[in-house]
Amino acid sequence: MTPTRPTVDFPAGPGLTARDPAFRDDPHPVYDRLRDERPVHHDADYGRFVVTRYRHVRQILRQRDFGADARKASAGSYMRRVAGTGVNEGSGDTAYAPPLVLSDDPDHRRLRLLLSKAFTPKAVEAMAAPVAEVAAELLDRMAGQSEIDFIADYAGPLPTRIIAAMMGIGREHVDDLKRWSEAILRGYDPDRDGVTHRALRDAYVAASRLFRETVETRRRAPGDDLISAMVRARDEADRLSDLEIISLCTQLLVAGNVTTTDLMGNGLNALLDAPAELEKLKQRPTLIESAIEEMLRFDCPITETARIAHTDGTLGGCPVTQGDTLTLSLAAANHDPAVFADPHRFDIERADNPHLGFGSGIHVCLGAPLARLEARIGMGAFLARFPQVNRADRAARRRDLPFFRGFEVLPVRLR
Ligand code: HEM
User: Is 118 part of a structural domain of the chain?
Assistant: First the structure.
C-alpha cells in the first residue's frame, strides 16, 4: 500500500508571527512548507491569505487589482485589524490622512510625486557626510568599552538622528521622535490591546503637533530641509495639504527609523552567524554594497506587507473575494528556491539578488536610497573600527511584533 502523506496543519494567527517563539527564532521551516504545500494559505484566525511564493508576491505587488487602502478591506479582515480606519480613532480628532503606504491611486500617485520632489536623490546624497559624522560620534563613545548593545548604542540612534536632521528637527526632540516611532510601530499590531492603542494614538498626536508647528515655522522661514521642501512642493502647486505633510512626516519617521535599525541589527547578526562571510567583508570592504543587499534578502526588516483584493478571483488555486486581505510574505519570497540558489545561505557575494526587501511596484520603498546609504556607511564604519566584534555572553533578544523583524537587544563584544 502506498503510504498516504499525513495531513499537516499549518500555523495561523499569532502562530504565524514573531509572537510564537519558534517562528520568531526561525520562520523558514514554516515558510518552506507553506511555499511547497500551500502557497496561498487561508489563515482564518487573522482573516487573511498568506502568500509565500516569490512569483505570486511580486505579481500582486505590481498588479492594479490589489490595493493598499485599509478602508477597502472587509470588516474583520486582517488589514482592518492592523490599520483600522485611522490611528487617531477615538481621539476626538476626525482629521486623518492615510499614510502613503496605505493609499491607492489617484491619491497615492499625487502624494508620491509631491514627496519625491522633496525627498530627492540629491537630498539623500547630501546626508552622506552627516551619517559618517553621527556614526563616528557614536563609535567614539564606545572607546574603552568592551561590550555594547549594538541596537541601543549604535543601530538605534543613527537613523533617528539622520531623519531628524533631514527634516530639520532639533536634537532636543530626537528622543521623543524615537519613542513616538516605536509606539506607532507597536500599534500596527493585529492583537493590540487598549493600552497599546492609546500609546499609539498619543504618540501620533504628539508627533503631529511637533510636525504641525514645524510646518508653520518653515512656511514663515523656509530652510533647505525636507519639511521646507514639502511646504514648497505644496505652495507652488497648491496640492499638499498640511494634514498630508504631517502624515507624510509621521510615515517617514516610522518607516525610516526602526527599519534601518533592523537592517543593521539583522545584518550584523547574520555576519556573526557566518564568520567566513564576516571575515571576507573585513578583508574586502568594497563588498559592503552587495553584503547590504544580501542582508535585505536574508533577514529582511519588513517581513510582510498586505494588499486588499479589489475584485473576486483565484490565486494559486485559492478563491479570493473582493475585500479580502492578502498578506504577502517578503521574507518567504526572499527565500524562494525558484529564484534564489541555496536560499538559506547568507552569501555576501550573491550575484543575482532581486530581493523584495523594499517591496516592488508602485509602493516600492521611497526611502531605499537613504536606508542603503545609512547601512553602507554605518556598517562599514562599525566594522572598520571594531573588526574583532563578536557575540557577548548576554543573550540577544528579538522583538515579538508581527512584521517588523529585528532585535530589541543585540549585545556584542568589541574586542
Ligand atoms: C532597511 C530599511 C527599510 C526597509 C526594509 C523598508 C521597506 C519598505 C517596504 C517593504 C515598503 C513597501 C511596503 C508596501 O508595498 O506595502 C516600503 C515603503 C516605504 N518606505 Fe521603506 N523601508 C526602509 C527604509 C525606509 C526609509 C529610510 C524611508 C524614508 C525615510 C522609507 C520610506 C518609505 C515610504 C515613504 C514608503 C511608502 C512608499 C509608497 O507607499 O509609495 N523607508 N518600505
Answer: yes
